[in-house]
Amino acid sequence: MDSNYLSGRIQAALLGIACGDSLGRSYEFLSRNEIREMFQEIVDRDGGTHNQAKGTYTDDTCLTLCLTDSLCNGFDLEDIADKFVKWYDDGLWAADGKTVFDIGISTRNAIKRLKSGVSPLESGDNDEYSNGNGSLMRILPLVFYIKDIEIDDRFELTKQVSSITHAHNRSVISCFYYLEFARLLLSSTEKLEAYRLANETVKNYLISIDIKEQELGCFDVLLSGNISDLPEELINSSGYVVDTLEASVYCLLTTQSFKEAAVKAVRFGLDADTTSAVTSGLTSLVYGLNSIPNEWLGELARRDEIDALANRFADSICSTNESQN
C-alpha cells in the first residue's frame, strides 16, 4: 500500500471519527422523533447533555487517540491500558486536555480494575449484559496495524484490545467484524462488495473457531443478507454494541458522502455521538480526508495535534513495513 495513501487514510480516519463524534455529542440521548421535531438541520453546536462547546469530541475519540498513540510504538497491551488510565486520571487526549466526560459503565469498571493492578487481559467485563459499544467506538486504528497479518492473528489482537474494557464474545466479534469490513474498505474495495466479503469472511471464520450458534445469531441482520434493504425503522441506535455496528454499516451503505452518513447517524438519535463516530470511521476510509466538511474540521478541538499523531502513526507503520521487507 502506498505510504502517501496510507498516511491520508489514517489522517482521515482519526479526524473523521473526531468530527462525527463532535457532531453527535450535543444530540446524545435524544430520540429520533425528538431530533426530527426539534432540528431541521444537524450541525455541530454548543450545549447538549454535557454542555460542551462545538468542536468538542467525547470519550469515543479520546480513547481512539490513546490507542493510536500507543500503536505508534508497536503493539503493547499494557501500554494501551496505561494510556486509557492516563486519559481517565489526567485527561490524556481529552478535547481540552483535562475534562473527562461521557464515560461508559464497563469502561469505568475496567479502568478502575487496571488502576488496582489487574492485567489488561482480565480487566474487561465479560458478562452478556456488558456489551455496550465502548470497545467498538475506539477500535479502528488497530486496522492499520493488523491489516497485513493472518486472520487468526487479526482476531487475537482485536480480542485483546476489545477485552481491556469489553471481553464478552459479542463485543469482540463486533470489533472483529468492523475491522474486517474496514480492512476491505482500506484496500479500496467497493463498499457493497466489501460488505459481502466481510460477511463471508467473518461468518466462515467464526464457524471455524466454534463460536456458539446462539452468539452467531446475534449478528443475523448483518450476516444474512443486505442490511441496506431494511427500512430505517428497523435500525436501532442504542448503546448496545450490535446496534451501533448495524447502524454504522447501514449508514455507510445507504448514503453517498461522508457528511450524509454522519448526519444520518446522528438523526437516528440515542447514542448519537458514538453511532456517528463509528459510522464516520468507515466513511473516512471510503471518501478520504477531502470529504470531511471544512467547517467541521475548522472547529475541531486539537486539530493540529491529531494531524501530528496521524503522521507519527503512519511513519511508524511504514517503518515497520520497510523493516519486514
TrEMBL record:
<keyword id="KW-0479">Metal-binding</keyword>
<dbReference type="InterPro" id="IPR005502">
    <property type="entry name" value="Ribosyl_crysJ1"/>
</dbReference>
<keyword id="KW-0378">Hydrolase</keyword>
<dbReference type="GO" id="GO:0016787">
    <property type="term" value="F:hydrolase activity"/>
</dbReference>
<keyword id="KW-0460">Magnesium</keyword>
<protein>
    <submittedName>
        <fullName>ADP-ribosylglycohydrolase</fullName>
    </submittedName>
</protein>
<feature type="binding site">
    <location>
        <position position="273"/>
    </location>
    <ligand>
        <name>Mg(2+)</name>
    </ligand>
</feature>
<feature type="binding site">
    <location>
        <position position="60"/>
    </location>
    <ligand>
        <name>Mg(2+)</name>
    </ligand>
</feature>
<feature type="binding site">
    <location>
        <position position="59"/>
    </location>
    <ligand>
        <name>Mg(2+)</name>
    </ligand>
</feature>
<dbReference type="InterPro" id="IPR050792">
    <property type="entry name" value="ADP-ribosylglycohydrolase"/>
</dbReference>
<feature type="binding site">
    <location>
        <position position="58"/>
    </location>
    <ligand>
        <name>Mg(2+)</name>
    </ligand>
</feature>
<feature type="binding site">
    <location>
        <position position="274"/>
    </location>
    <ligand>
        <name>Mg(2+)</name>
    </ligand>
</feature>
<dbReference type="Pfam" id="PF03747">
    <property type="entry name" value="ADP_ribosyl_GH"/>
</dbReference>
<comment type="similarity">
    <text>Belongs to the ADP-ribosylglycohydrolase family.</text>
</comment>
<dbReference type="GO" id="GO:0046872">
    <property type="term" value="F:metal ion binding"/>
</dbReference>
<feature type="binding site">
    <location>
        <position position="271"/>
    </location>
    <ligand>
        <name>Mg(2+)</name>
    </ligand>
</feature>
<dbReference type="InterPro" id="IPR036705">
    <property type="entry name" value="Ribosyl_crysJ1_sf"/>
</dbReference>
